[in-house]
Amino acid sequence: MNGPAGYVDWERIPTRGRRVSVALAGPAASLLMAAVFGGTVSIMVPPGNDTTNWGLAALAFLCLANLTSALVNLLPIPGLDMFEAVAPDRPWVRKARVNQLFFSVGVFAVLALPVINPWLQDTVFALLDLVMPNPTFPGTAFLGQLLWQFWAA
Predict the structure, then answer these.
(1) How far apart are the first and last CA of the chain?
(2) What is the pLDDT of residue 36?
(3) How many domains does the chain have?
(4) What share of residues in the chain are helix, strand, coil (percent, to 5)?
(5) What are phi and psi of 88, to 5 degrees?
(6) Is the overall model pTM greater than 0.90, yes or no?
(7) What is the pLDDT of residues 98-109, one digit of tens each?
(8) Domain range for 60
């Protein structure tokens, strides 16, 4: 769900405004998908009810994953979307773009560290708890996380 989905030749995008629009399209799409998935689950599981439906849990987990993706891509680090939105037109920026794959791999390596990863997950679950109208949604997302992380078993 994350990572460089496609190559963008930033030099061919003529204006700064268009570059910012292209850069922020990824996080905006992730937030939109999180809202659609979260809204669907909130409608299907009324507040105060729990569910063990694996399909709804999967949608809740996809909401969680898209929200995490949007938050990570809002870090101003080369290889991530926000860097392109805020980066000035300087020679070091062109050099950073050449090595952006290493920066993005480094970000995901740091986020996978046992010290950082629980903090990231707690932050995303706390954000879900704040923005979702259904108080049982974080529990459903956690169920989806448990069900769909079969590779961790």
Answers:
(1) 21
(2) 94
(3) 1
(4) 70, 0, 30
(5) -75, 165
(6) no
(7) 788 888 889 889
(8) 11-152
